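User
New here, help please:
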Amino acid sequence: MVAMYKRKNYGFYSLVVFLIILMVAPTAFASPKIKIGVIGPMKFVAGQNHWWGALLAAEEINAAGGVMVGREKHEIELLKTDSNEMQNLTDAVSSMERIIKVDKVHFITGGFRTEAVLAMQDVAADHKRIFLGGSGSPGVTERLAKNYDRYKYFFRALSPVAVYFTQVNLFLLEMAGDKMKAELGITKPRVALVLDKIVVADPIVTFAQDMLPKMGMEIAGVWRTSPMANDLTSELTAIKAADAHLILTFLSGPSGAIFNKQWGELRIPAAPVGYNAEANALAHLQATGGMCDYVSIWGTFGGVKITDKTVPFFNKFIARAGEYPLSNAATYDAVYLLKEAIQRSKTLEVEAVIRELEKIEYRGASGIMAFYPRDHKWPHDLKTGPGYTTMLGLQWRDGKLVTVWPDGRAALGDKEWVGIKYEGTVDYNLPPWMITYWKKKK
């Protein structure tokens, strides 16, 4: 009888223990998830960089124990969505709605083309979701200045406002122009403007037309092209016929590879300087058949030491993605920004996280990240320039991208740039055939 009693009690206690385990198992053996949607044109290099940057950050954060929300650890779960925004803006809206309504993400990062980001921004506002996005148009954050309560969920975390990177374009033009003066004696360089026919490029044209004459440069002509163009021969031959010495570019789509390939094949005696999304990629070398050498662009990452996090991220990105990181890969910093803001607020509650993001100053791979305040003309825009996020001047040389700017000198007379030169930066070089062409033409 005693033995039977013990057996019955043993069975009873085992059942109790089993039920207790079932009750506590979700807490003990599985971390709660913080769902972050990564949205972008995933068929293109811009969207692929969105994904890889966020993925590397999430892996690092999870491996280090996740995100502390109050006293509880949370794991980051990423959900990838193709916005198809390069080809269809309607798809961008439906993709944004799906990632919120179906995937039920807590936060969103990504977005590239301004027209798409404006539309996705409205969806995020409708659903009160924090959106750490891209795009360069001032209009994206001017919306906050006009209607903060509706659009406060948006932070431009992946690239600075177009006005800033237009300034960087001019800094690079000045650098190339100084090289021409020194090596070719050309005192008044002629500049061709080649920009995508998209919203974000419009203010760049206006700004450049105003500033270039003040810089002692002439405008050789303006060419507005499609981001999806597959032949730019006529534009390039017209640029050569216009006796242009420099080409200011803003090319956001696949046409960037076409432009550089044909520029190299035709040996156009004018040096391209500016933005070219495709030219930031390691695959660009193959896509252009090696014709991209001496093309100069701006970007966020260039393998030089901006902060102690830059070079480790740069090398890790190449090892995992087989690509150079574009500015879109700043989703890496965006995920870390969310982690910091959540941990400081000790909650996932949207208003609390917004308040922390508004006052954050974070040392990321792309630089010191902080946002302009509510009373600024561009609320929630990245602070830019020395001491904050700075763009880099990059140049293709001998089959690889090297950093050529900041070069330690004043930029357009701005002495703030004096002494700003990151470890690993080299001198800018003009294309050799260009030097030969203009020396013969003298």
User: Anything to note?
Assistant: Residues 247 and 272 are 4 Å apart (CA to CA). DSSP finds 15 helices and 15 strands in the chain.
